[in-house]
Write a structure and sequence with these properties.
With 164 residues, this protein is an alpha/beta fold. It has a single domain, classed as Rossmann fold, CATH 3.40.50.300. The chain is built from 7 helices and 4 strands. Strands 2-1-3-4 form a 4-stranded parallel sheet. Helix 2 crosses helix 7 (117-130). The N and C termini lie far apart (41 Å). Residues 1-11 and 139-154 have low confidence and may be disordered.
Length: 164
């Protein structure tokens, strides 16, 4: 008979993660597409999951089956500056609600507000390396960034973090 934990956690019925796979989730305008593109350039098996638009809490697990989940966050002010000055606060809160499961399970969390695209990439790559995940085939290109991670937003995983 299944425990009450398996009834509450949809992850218990999901397939095994794919070794080396990285999934990236986050709110709109947090930098997901750019990060995935650059991680792929570096040789990572990176996938963008549009979890913020899904009503299925564990879609990121079911479709991507990542070894590592990266959660990118951004404040309303940053979203409005990057994308749409009239982006509704209620929509951001709805996206965060849809992302709760992913946020709870992420290994890497980055608030992208104070960071450039290069700094986000550098922080995520450093965290992936610390976790033992290395690219399968490094590809040198102009997109390969080497920005410093000093004096920038802290990369952290798990739960219990404050919002951007």
């Amino acid at each position: 008979m299944p425990s009450s934990d398996s009834d509450e956690d949809p992850a218990s019925t999901n397939p095994m993660p794919i070794a080396g796979r990285v999934a990236v989730v986050g709110v709109c305008a947090s930098g997901k597409s750019v990060l995935v593109k650059e991680l792929r350039t570096l040789g990572y098996d990176a996938r963008h999951v549009a979890q913020e638009h899904s009503f299925v809490p564990d879609m990121w697990q079911r479709l991507s089956r990542p070894q590592v989940l990266v959660y990118l966050d951004a404040s309303l002010a940053t979203m409005r500056r990057r994308r749409d000055p009239s982006f509704p606060a209620a929509l951001l809160e709805e996206q965060r609600r849809r992302l709760q499961h992913a946020r709870h399970h992420c290994q890497i969390y980055v608030c992208t507000d104070p960071l450039t695209e290069d700094q986000v990439l550098a922080q995520v790559v450093a965290a992936l390396k610390r976790s033992g995940l290395v690219p399968s085939a490094k590809v040198e290109s102009p997109g390969a960034k080497t920005a410093s991670t000093e004096n920038s937003s802290e990369v952290q995983g798990g739960k219990g973090r404050k919002k951007c």
